[in-house]
Amino acid sequence: MTADAGTSGRPKQTAEWERKRREILDVAADVFFTSGFQKGTTKEIAERVGLSQSTLYHYVGSKEDLMGEIAEQVDRDFTQALDDAEALGGPPRDRLDRIIDAFVGALVLNRRTFGVYWKEFRSIPPELAKKIAADEQSFARRVEAVVGEVQAAGQLPADHPTRLLSQGILGMMSWTHWWYRSDEFTAEQVAAAYKALVGLSPG
Amino acid sequence: MTADAGTSGRPKQTAEWERKRREILDVAADVFFTSGFQKGTTKEIAERVGLSQSTLYHYVGSKEDLMGEIAEQVDRDFTQALDDAEALGGPPRDRLDRIIDAFVGALVLNRRTFGVYWKEFRSIPPELAKKIAADEQSFARRVEAVVGEVQAAGQLPADHPTRLLSQGILGMMSWTHWWYRSDEFTAEQVAAAYKALVGLSPG
DNA sequence: TTGTCGGTCGATTGATCGATCGATTACCCG
DNA sequence: CGGGTAATCGATCGATCAATCGACCGACAA
User: Fold this and answer.
1) Handedness of CA B193, A201, A154, A171 (dihedral sign)
2) pLDDT tier at B16 (50, 70, 90 boundaries)?
3) Residue B38's pLDDT is what?
4) Chain A residues close to B118, C-beta within 8 Å
5) Are B106 and B18 in contact (CB under 8 A)?
6) Looking at beta carbons, which residues of chain A come within 8 Å of B185?
7) What is the mean pLDDT of chain B?
8) What distance in Å separates the CA atoms of residue B16 and residue B178, rounded to the nearest whole number?
9) Alpha-carbon distance B80 to B87, whole Å?
10) Distance separating alpha carbons of residues B124 and B117, to the nearest angstrom
11) Which of A149, A37, A131 is nearest to A92 (CA)?
12) Partner residue facing A168 (CB), from B39, B157, B194
């Protein structure tokens, strides 16, 4: 991936170069979010960054690479949020509370990036997609484990499969990307409502 | 849309013709679901129905039309499910119960079609997309109204915006299309778990 | 038998777009 | 100044596909 290591090496301008790269990624996420991966053209991305279409390829190996890096970012955000939420320990219900806070927070902060991730999952380079799918599954399993503990503690209905309750919670949160507009509610309000909805203590 | 009423009229074979049309729509939904609207080719659709790419155009006006009709189907399913659920009346909580049952039921029954609807919403012909977006909004408002009543009845937390609770429930249900596999759980199990999760009486 | 017409196909067209190439300019180091 | 390298661009290539066109076939009616 990432047409890395050419023959003589990549530019040293790591300062400005990396900054521009970041900008390209951001713009790409926005373009893919509004137009989709296939319809969003490299020309549009390039021009919004102030480059010609061909110059874009000095910063990026291919259009697919762009998608790949966006997905990797989301992947990292997922696990980071979960790690943070679980690091503090405490009773199961508190951990689930924090997972919801962290997940909703991350999602609201990067609505477009997360949206691209879900809507355009098929456009991720196959190799990378495999790894990311595995990560996502392990993510789901970790959440499931916490939900299971909450059930055992009697704070969620125990007479239903843990997997279903867990998927319900994950879905509730994930779906936020579909309707959320930043001028209506804060991430905290959303998270608080979700926690209340599943019978957890409000934020 | 729907290159309808040409000059002299469409074929009379309404029997076989309509049957083939239906088959094309089904296959298209499947192709779009697995490959996406842009990547899924008319050639693939045609061949899976047993026609040549060009012959497909005797049954369909354009690729966009296919997408449009898939979306209209989902649109109808949405409102149908809601109408059915509300027709019986009764206390708010019962109505919300039935909405969840109906929505999850419809979604599980047509996973691929619903998935296409959400992932490829941008590919719906603009004119139609406007109408469908309006329908979806009115759908959301109707659910919101019921959720509000349930809150008023003290069966959902009242200290959170109705809209957020409603979106949470809708999201939980909608997301099902992302992970659901028919060989693990039935629609009833899923619906029951969702109802329990939001503190409603189990099915 | 012959004419019509629905259904079918292969070939082609036309447009879009990702990616490459060669040339030009700007910048830094000696 | 002057050589090298990064960054930029315009032009172009090559591939993909939706959509059209013209021809053929077979059923059914007169």
Assistant:
1) positive
2) confident
3) 97
4) 119, 178
5) no
6) 161, 164
7) 91
8) 34
9) 10
10) 9
11) A149
12) B194
Q: Is B181 helix (H, G, I), strand (E, B) or coil?
A: coil
Distance CA B152, CA A29 (A): 41
CA distances B125 to A119, B25, B68, B151, B181, Å, are 18, 16, 6, 38, 30
Q: How far apart are CA B2 and CA B41, in angstroms?
A: 19
Q: What is the C-alpha separation between A109 and A176, in angstroms, rounded?
A: 11
* Cβ atoms of A137 and A82 closer than 8 Å: no
The b-or-e profile of B160-181 (16+ CB within 10 A means b, else e) is bbbbbbbbbbbbbbbbbbbebe
Q: Where are the beta strands (DSSP E) in chain B?
A: none
CB atoms within 10 A of CB A137: 10
- In this complex, do B36 and A35 lie within 8 Å of one another by their Cβ atoms? no
Report yes or no: A176 and B164 within 8 Å, Cβ to Cβ.
no
Two tokens, residue A173: 């949160």
Would you call A178 and B118 a contact, using CB atoms and an 8 Å cutoff?
yes
What tokens appear for B95 in the block?
A: 């109505």
**Residue with the larger pLDDT of the pair A98 and A10:** A98
- Model confidence at A84, pLDDT cuts 50, 70, 90, reads very high
Which nucleotide, over all strands, has the C1' atom closest to the CA of A44?
C17
Q: Is B47 left (phi over 0), alpha (psi -120 to 50) or beta?
A: alpha
Interface contact flag, B160 A197, Cβ < 8 Å: yes
- Measured CA to CA, the distance from residue A66 to residue B198 in angstroms comes to 39
Residue A67 near residue A88 (C-beta atoms within 8 A): no
Question: What distance, in Å, lies between the first and last C-alpha atoms of chain A?
Answer: 42
Average pLDDT score, chain A: 91
